[in-house]
Records
---
Amino acid sequence: MYGKTQEQNMEFEAFYESDEDTTGPRTLSYIQAKGKAIQCRGSRCLVLIAVGLGLICLLLLVFIILQNITITAERDLINSYKNTVEEFNQTINSLQDNYTDLMTEKHQLQNNKLELETRVNDLTAEKSQLQRDFDSLGQRNLDFEHKVTTLSDELKKNVSKGGNQCSLDGLFVSKKAMSWSDSRKYCRDRGGDLVIINTEEKQRLMSSLVRLSERAWIGLSDRENEGNLTWVDNSTLKQGFWFEGEPNDEHGNEDCVEIMVFSSTLNNWNDLPCSEKRKGICEK
Ligand code: BGC
Ligand code: CA
């Protein structure tokens, strides 16, 4: 095609060279050459237009591709933003959940703290009360110790007086608590009997023989004859050392007599049902 066009161009150029000579004769071949030249110029224009259009198309294509790339990139960016926002939202939700859990835990801890504070206050009050009780028991213990010492001194004094008034000789206390009858049998089996108390000194001595907070049978009862208290040797009672309000024959069933050592008071006798179990003070 280019070969043909080159040929035509040469003819065309020849034509133009001869065309400048307007004075020369116009032949058929000249006219044909001129037509061909015009034709040739038109096709060159068409080629140029086509090339231009092609370039424009190419530019448009490049532009569209670039646009497309930009849009895709922007879409990716937006998607990435969306994902990030979703992740943020999830993180925020999770943080909110955590916050709610922490608040619940905080309230629970506050409640626990209040409960513990109340408990600590209660325990402190209890401790103070116990301390007071302890102090008071300590004081009572001191009192008891003092009484024991007093009684013990008294006992020693009485013992040192010898058998003139009364002595510990022949006196013993059963190890086991028994009824009045069994206690009496215990004494008799050992060659004695339940003790007879007929003087203040002897009452004092018997009281010191029985330990604090303990009780023991003595040889006095009205088992034989209600209301008529007699000693185990059948002698009648002359001087009693009754606790306040005794003898009261409670429920009409108290016929035997015990010593109750709850304090240093000398008046510590009580009538009691004979079936009750007590240690017995024996005397040979
Ligand atoms: C009474 C006594 C009674 C005793 C019987 C006491 O509360 O004061 O008189 O012998 O109870 O366990
Ligand atoms: Ca009584």
---
Amino acid sequence: MLRLAVLVSGGGTNLQAILDRIADGTIREAQVVRVISNSDRAFALERARKAGIEAVCVTRKQHPVPEEFNAALKEAIDACRPDLVVLAGCLVVIPQIIVDAYPNRIINIHPALIPSFCGTGYYGLKVHEAALARGVRVTGATVHFVDGGTDTGPILLQKAVEIHQDDTPEILQRRVMEEAEWKLLPEAISLIAQGRVTVEDGRVRIK
Ligand code: GRF
């Protein structure tokens, strides 16, 4: 059984998608053992509590010194002995000490088709504002392994989503979540739990 630590920052709809797929048996070989939030106001914490899952907060208010925050975040992850760390709407740039401790064992969902509209400054609605401003016809979502950079690790899954003529950033964000994010992240977890995913020379292979 793959032990999952899920890191969140906000509404937790991606966490909810994972919990729902575990509940309906789509994901059979994994369990969420802890939810960790960098915000004590994240509704994702409520979703965890409703599901009976331990939810903890590690905030910069508690740990204003960056190195102490990083150590506390690593401690919160280590304590639940995860096999896989899942960044689900997590706005924290994962510090190198955690990336080093969990090589190819951290995945992230990004709401665009990497390498488009990603990297520093591209998160949440900003991603969709940039896609609309550029006038692309399709966008989507990407699940990738987390390395030392921002949205730069090996790509595991991607799914394209059409942009409609009158989309606003909010409408587009919702469509990308519904049609891509909420499908890709559970699918990625299931593939990893089945032992079907390897990373070779920076490229992902799915058996
Ligand atoms: C959304 O912008 C989503 O596209 C991105 O993170 C944000 C919040 O997601 N992945 P969630 O509802 O907290 O999972």
